[in-house]
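PROTEIN DESIGN WORKSHEET
SECTION A - STRUCTURE
LENGTH: 170
TOKENS:
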């Protein structure tokens, strides 16, 4: 449990005419690094400031998953218009994958992409995008008559291996 070590007025902020204060939250056990929180809102107490900070976590993880799986912030285009288009498109893609996965989970149990050295308790965005990719392959490519017949002939384990491989490909 973190304990507030000190809280006070940020002299530098006041010097520049911005009212504010800094909260330093430190772990009593010394196993975690100290965290520093700054606010210009005079009515916030330490608990409110930390609560508001933790509300940001889902936003932070959204952007982390977008960077890891969709290449957010790694645009290849250098033209201003290209850069301005890519971010919103990737945010839209993230939302679309999340919505499709959410609907899928209403009728199916989540499949977690376990790795030998890492076991998951809950699905992550990588599981969501793998499921959406699998649905795409199943409902579009393998739904075509020549592929549909071939897929029916495959042994169940081989079909599962093929779908896992295609859906995990980056």
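SECTION B - SEQUENCE
RESIDUE ASSIGNMENT:
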């Amino acid at each position: 449990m973190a304990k507030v070590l000190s809280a006070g007025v940020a002299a530098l902020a006041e010097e520049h005419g911005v009212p504010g204060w800094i909260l330093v939250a430190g772990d009593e056990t010394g196993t975690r690094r100290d965290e520093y929180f700054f606010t210009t809102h005079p009515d916030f107490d330490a608990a409110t400031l930390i609560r508001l900070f933790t509300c940001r976590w889902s936003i932070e993880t959204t952007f982390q998953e977008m960077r890891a799986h969709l290449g957010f912030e790694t645009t290849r285009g250098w033209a201003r218009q290209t850069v301005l288009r890519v971010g919103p498109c990737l945010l839209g893609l993230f939302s679309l994958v999340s919505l499709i996965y959410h609907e899928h989970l209403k009728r199916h149990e989540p499949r977690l992409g376990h790795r030998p050295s890492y076991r998951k308790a809950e699905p992550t965005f990588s599981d969501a995008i793998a499921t959406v990719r699998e649905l795409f392959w199943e409902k579009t490519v393998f739904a075509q008559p020549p592929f549909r017949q071939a897929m029916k002939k495959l042994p169940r384990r081989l079909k599962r291996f093929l779908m896992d491989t295609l859906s995990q490909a980056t």
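SECTION C - NOTES
The first helix runs from residue 11 to 15.
Confidence is low (pLDDT under 50) at residues 5-12.
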